[in-house]
Amino acid sequence: MKRITTIIATTFVIANTLMATTTTSRASLNLLLRRSPPKLRNSKFFSSSSSCQFRPSTLPKSYPCPIWSSSFSFCLPPRSTSTSLPFRHFSSSPPSMSSAIAAAASSSVSDESLLSSNPLLQDFDFPPFDSVDAEHLENSVEPSWPKLVEPLEKLVDRLSVVWGVINHLKAVKDTPELRAAIEEVQPEKVKFQLRLGQSKPIYNAFKAIRESPEWSSLSEARQRLVEGNVLTIVLITVSAQIKEAVLTGIALDDEKREEFNKIEQELEKLSHKFSENVLDATKKFEKLITDKKEMDGLPPSALGLFAQAAVSKGHENATAENGPWVITLDAPSYLPVMQHAKNRALREELYRAYLTRASSGDLDNTAIIDQILKLRLEKAKLLGYNNYAEVSMTMKMATVEKASELLEKLRSASWGPAVQDMEDLKSFAKSQGAEESGSLTHWDTTFWSERLRESKYDINEEELRPYFSLPKVMDGLFSLAKTLFGVDIEPADGVAPVWNSDVRFYRVKDSSGSPIAYFYFDPYSRPSEKRGGAWMGEVFSRSQVMAQKGTSVRLPVAHMVCNQTPPVGDKPSLMTFREVETVFHEFGHALQHMLTKQDEGLVAGIRNVEWDAVELPSQFMENWCYHRDTLMSIAKHYQTGETLPEEIYKKLLAARTFRAGSFSLRQLKFASLDLELHTNYVPGGPESIYDVDQRVSVKTQVIPPLPEDRFLCGFSHIFAGGYAAGYYSYKWAEVLSADAFSAFEDAGLDDMKAVQETGQRFRNTVLALGGGKAPLKVFVEFRGREPSPEPLLRHNGLLAASAPA
Q1: Phi, psi of 559 (to 5 degrees)
Q2: What backbone torsions phi and psi does residue 359 show, to the nearest 5 degrees?
Q3: pTM above the 0.70 mark?
Q4: What range(s) does the Oligopeptidase A N-terminal domain occupy (predicted)?
């Protein structure tokens, strides 16, 4: 741990020194960024088939799935607080670890020695880029692109790499040592972020560019970058958490700025602690079952997973058939119980355990939530806003009013169908002789929904698993990408090192066969070390400034992380249909990152895209899971190769709107609760956070929440992620994505030429323009008009529905 702490600490000490100094020479800056790193590649954090590479990552934005499952969240709470980044080839002649650490640890060594000993500030070969040329960055900035923006991009990019390496490992290979190291160094990181964001020389230089005669000659992407930086006071940061702080306090007087900075430091610390408590509480729960009767109804795939978990806990003779079995609160374990276990008491036990995660004892997040909300409100007031939601919206397409208006419109359309969903469930349970039919509650709805779906559409999700093996799903997904966007995707395992042997690495090529991007894919759940959820993260952005000599642009690199059911025995990973949708979802994010044509690194791909527009490509891709040709290309029985029967496909299509009102209302509950907490809730006032939850639930939950409901204690999206006062963006983006897909419907989904032409137009607008153009302009350029909610309501079968106020 001490080694890790020293490495990170040195990084930010150097960064802060660089921001303050006026005498930094080009030579010392080159020294800062061009040392050969020690042999970290052999550390316990990595496994690799490559002999000279280092890798993991996420960057500015990490996009988790929404909490959309009918049980408590298929994706499980994400944690977007960090920004993961790159791992690249090391120099061929690295110094020894011992010498590096000795130098870094010594308090009397020179600055040059510190620079040369830091393994995370070295040049790397994959992907390569030039040294930072940030000569006298703060005190001698000039209001020109080459002297301001390019050096700034280089500095931020390099430091993002350093912090991202560690944060990515924390997300996928968590250890107590990493946690302690990050906690110790975190203040230095935030100090640097705030110093950069509050730099008046940099701010004034951006302002001068905006007011210069050359302004009109700048490209739209460069103008948007400058205006964004002026608006947000140079909101260029290393972590996703700071990104939600729309203003960085540069306009505050010294006393208030000091207060603002203390708030930022404390918020980051609290968010990390919140996330750790959720992870620890999830890991803490284990249910050992030895009586086979208690497992009645559970499918073989779930029993195999539970037995495998039991083996990992020391029950060496555990088998799927005879047990013992260990059940946890991780999605692949929790969901099958809620869907299939006939043991109602077991379902109740798991539901209550999940519902109360991180709400008691040393892991209680209640006080942390209160303090986070209190500090966010204080920050908003310091910046001149009425509440934190107003702060959040300054970097989004919507306003508080527009977001609330959309949520109410969708709630009204969803309420009636959701009420009917519950009546249908009660009637069905009664027809099956269920004792609980007259009093169905939270731990019953998922179970009986699955039974009703099986009865109504004759579809058993578990019986579909053999048709959705991971290799076939990925082959079909890549084939779709070729059809729509004209790209080829091929395995490139061994080109870059990975952090776990299950991780795959891929190369993306254009129609000429030239590489245009790369990405990692980490598909399986690893409860002991990997946080729950599914997300896409940026490793490198496309950038002309960061291009290696001899190349015109640095290629983008992404990673996709899921938590789906791992292989059991000699079977491949057999996926549920929801897991298939999740992979398509995250791949949509990756496509926007990888297929960008923006060469300005700070607005390329997912960078600078308004938060409520960034889900458009991901949710758009989910629609293709229901497209016949696409689905048939991935739905092949893993043993026989048989294609999914046509009648089952038709039932899947018909079942798409099954309980659509209930699913929609659930998302609207989360979004409404988020906005209420960040607009009207008064920390320390007469209402508690749980009172607010109960009040919002009156109009958004057909079954009222339990009095002991503590879902908020695990709501990582808004307390440890980038979705504070922004959860509505899932529904906002659903409107955009459904309307975008309707362009393909209008063109004719059976007309291959029309689909390809429309796909190219989508690629050249939504996927290519990144943050260099306002998202509404991008959408209009693709669709020919502004977005309409009609396609979303039509797809969900909710057009004619309404609800009382």
Answers
A1: -135, 145
A2: -125, 15
A3: yes
A4: 134-257
Give the pairing of strands 557-564 and 535-540: antiparallel
Structure tokens at 639: 């043993």
CB 1 within 8 A of CB 177: yes
Tokens of 270: 């609290």
Write the CB contacts of 331 (distance below 8 Å, at least 6 apart in sequence): 69, 73, 74, 75, 76, 525, 532, 563
Tokens of 182: 């990050």
Residue ranges for the chain with pLDDT beneath 70: 1-141, 161-162, 228-247, 800-805
For residue 128, give every residue at least 6 positions away whose Cβ sits within 8 Å of its Cβ, in sequence order, or none.
88, 89, 548, 554
Residues 493-550 pLDDT 10s: 999 989 999 999 999 999 999 999 999 999 999 988 888 889 998 888 999 999 988 8
* pLDDT tens track for 760-798: 999 999 999 988 998 999 999 999 999 998 999 999 988
What are 643's strand-pairing partners? Answer: 636
Residue 320 to residue 394: CA distance in whole angstroms = 53
* Amino acid identity for residue 763 in this structure: R
Contact 508, 35 (CB under 8 A): no
Backbone CA torsion sign across 510, 514, 517, 523: positive
pLDDT of residue 130: 30
- H runs (alpha helix) in 316-365: 331-340, 344-355
Per DSSP, what are the bridge partners of residue 356?
Answer: none
Give residue 588's identity as a one-letter amino acid code.
Answer: G
Q: DSSP 3-state assignment of 148?
A: helix
Q: What are phi and psi of 444, to 5 degrees?
A: -105, -30
User: Which pLDDT score is estimated for 141?
Assistant: 66
Tell how strand 287-289 and strand 325-327 pair up: antiparallel
Strand segments, DSSP code E, in 323-473 are 325-327
Task: Specify the amino acid at residue 494.
Answer: G
Token pair of 235 as six digits: 């909101």
Q: Which two tokens stand for residue 719?
A: 């307390």
User: What is the distance, to the nearest Å, from the Cα of residue 396 to the centroid of all Cα atoms in its chain?
Assistant: 17
Burial 664-685 (b: 16+ CB within 10 A, else e): bbbbbbbbbbbbbbbeebebee
Model pLDDT, residue 59: 32
In this prediction, residue 198 carries a pLDDT of: 74
The predicted pLDDT at position 242 comes to 26
Single-letter amino acid code for the residue at 70: S
> How many other CB atoms sit within 10 Å of the CB of residue 145?
16
Tell me the CA distances in angstroms from 679 to 215, 367, 391, 721, one per residue in order. Answer: 37, 19, 10, 18
Contact status, residue 56 vs residue 87, Cβ threshold 8 Å: yes
> Quick one: pLDDT at residue 127?
28
Q: What pLDDT score does 451 carry?
A: 95
Catalytic annotation, pick one of 138, 586, 610, 615: 586
Active site residue 586: yes
What span, in angstroms and rounded, lies between the C-alpha atoms of 220 and 748?
33
Pairing of strands 557-564, 515-524: parallel
Number of Cβ within 10 Å of residue 471's Cβ equals 12
The pLDDT value recorded for residue 79 is 34
Half-sphere exposure of 432 (CA within 13 A, CB side): 16
In 3-131, beta strands by DSSP E: 62-64
Strand (E) or helix (H) holding 488:
strand 488-491
- Which residues, in sequence order, are bridge partners of residue 327? 287
What gap in Å lies between CA 191 and CA 180, rounded to an integer? 18
3-state class of 738 per DSSP? helix
Burial pattern 718-738, b for ≥16 Cβ within 10 A else e, equals bbbbbbbbbbbbbbbbbbbbb
Residues 6+ apart with CB under 8 A from 764: 597
Task: Report the pLDDT value the prediction gives residue 191, as an integer from 0 to 100.
Answer: 77
Beta bridge mates, 287: 327
How far, in Å, CA of 67 to CA of 577, rounded? 16
- Rounded Cα distance, 421 and 153, in Å: 52
CA distance 335 to 302: 9
For residue 12, give the amino acid letter: F
Q: pLDDT tens, 365-380? A: 999 999 999 999 999 9
